[in-house]
Every structure is written in C-alpha cells, then in structure tokens.
Amino acid sequence: MILTALSYQIADSIDMKAFKTAFPAEQYYGDTDEAFYNMQDERFIYVFKYGVVCFLNYDEIKIAEFIRFLVPFCKGVFANKLKEELRIETGTAENKFGYNKIEIQDGRIDAFRLIMLNVSQSVALDYYSDQTNSLLLETNHHTQMLERNGRLDISGTNLQKFIGRTLNLKNKIAQNLYIFDSPDVTWEDEYLNKLDMGLKNTFDLQDRFRNIQEGLEIVKENLDLFKDLLQYRNSMVLEWVVIVLIAIEVIHFIWIEVFK
Question: Taking 60 as the threshold, does the pLDDT of residue 232 lie above it?
C-alpha cells in the first residue's frame, strides 16, 4: 500500500487548548503541544502548536476543509503555506529511505505517527530557516552601510525591535523543535527507533537545525556589536551636550563680568 503524508506550516502558532475543545475526535496521542488523531481507514491528522498540521492518506478537498476549520484557532495565519510531502510504501521487505519516498516493513499506527512527526519538523525547519535568512539579510544590509559610511543607519528603538525579533525566533525554535530528542515510544522499540533515526537522516534535520542556530548566533553577534556602537555614539553625543552647556555657562559668566 502506498500512502502520502502532507505537512503544512499554516501559521505562527495554534491555540491547542481551544482547538481540542472544538474538535470532537478522540486523540490517539496528545499533550499540551500536539495532538495526533486516528481517523480510521488509514487516515491520520497531526496538529502542532507551532502552526503545523500534517495529514496522512487525505485528499486535497478534505485537507482544505480541515484547514478552514483550524484557521480560527491560529495566530499569524500565512497567505502562502509551506508544504512538505512524503510518499510511504508499507509492507516491504525492509525499510528504505529516499528523498521523497520511504518504504517500511510495518505500517503500525506508531510508525505513521513518527513519520508525520518528522515530516512536520522538516516543514517547520523550512519556516525557521526562512526567518533566519531574513534576519541575516537585514543584518548584512546594516554591516554594509557601516562599511560604506562608517556609521550605522539604524536607530536605537529599531535596533531593540530587531534584537527582540531575533530572541523571539530563538525562543520559538528552542520551545517547539526537539530535533535531537526521540519520542518516548522509540525508547523500548528497536523498530521504531531505527525508523526515527532513518527519518531524521533522510530529512537532514540535525544539520539543518544546526545551520539555523549558527545563523542566529551570527545575527546575535552583529547585534551586540551594533548595540555597543550605538551606546558609544550616544555617549559621545552626551559628552558634546555637556561641553556645550559648560561653554554657555562660561560665556554667560564672562558676559556678566564684562558688563557688570
């Protein structure tokens, strides 16, 4: 049997508590961050608080219907959704992992959940990678202006906002992605553990995660430098203000003495 897993990054985040209250289906697995549903007939839905929903063995019409149902519980809905697709063949002689298709021996529910989890982590990495690249481009613009003009072209307020965006992205990644951790279900099941490791390697999750982390560190280092430069510029302005005030006071004193 050949099935298709489709994962979509549809928003910045999903209110899982409100969604679970409104969605009547019974969870096969769930916690505060995610919910996995067995909808029967080899159909599954996996919803994550970081704005991702994954479908297994669903057609486009049913996917669109569920996403419309899910959108009211989302924050920061995307106009253009990111998408990851993986074909799954079950009942094969051995597990094989390809770029857009995998073959697995045992198509049990926990195996499908692992596959959908890794596909969802992959599409989330695409989103966070895009956000990191955007921050890097903005940082490069400011460093080029610094090289060209010898000064920064960003105000203190805008720099603080830039720092806030960077820190928020780092926090989201730390809270939502567990690339280096395997689900509890893999700890005592060798088949699921090998499947999980094979999926992580197939999607290159760990290297992509490290690249994002390194990109954010580069941005942070630049922002720290920008902050120091702005503090130096502000201290120089303050020194000139003090000098001007002293000069005015001296001139005022001399004026009084001369025309006393």
Answer: no
Domains of the chain by residue range: 2-219
| Beta strand residue intervals within the chain, DSSP E | 2-14, 27-30, 34-38, 44-48, 52-56, 74-90, 96-97, 101-104
Task: List residues bridging with 37 in a β-sheet.
Answer: 27, 45
Rounded Cα distance between 76 and 140, Å, is 26
d(CA 241, CA 127): 47
- Edge-first strand listing for the sheet containing 101-104: 27-30, 34-38, 44-48, 52-56, 2-14, 74-90, 101-104, 96-97
- The token pair at 156 is 């203190």
Residues 6, 82: contact at Cβ < 8 Å?
Answer: no
Quick one: which of 132, 220, 139 has its CA closest to 177? Answer: 132
**Residue 209 burial (C-beta neighbours within 10 Å; 0-12, 13-18, 19+):** buried
Helix (H) or strand (E) holding 144: helix 109-149
Q: What is the pLDDT of residue 233?
A: 58
Whole-number Å distance between alpha carbons of 48 and 35: 7
Secondary structure class of 108 (helix, strand, coil): coil
Q: Band the pLDDT of 23: cuts 50, 70, 90.
A: very high
The closest alpha carbon to 14, from 58, 60, 67, 80, belongs to 67
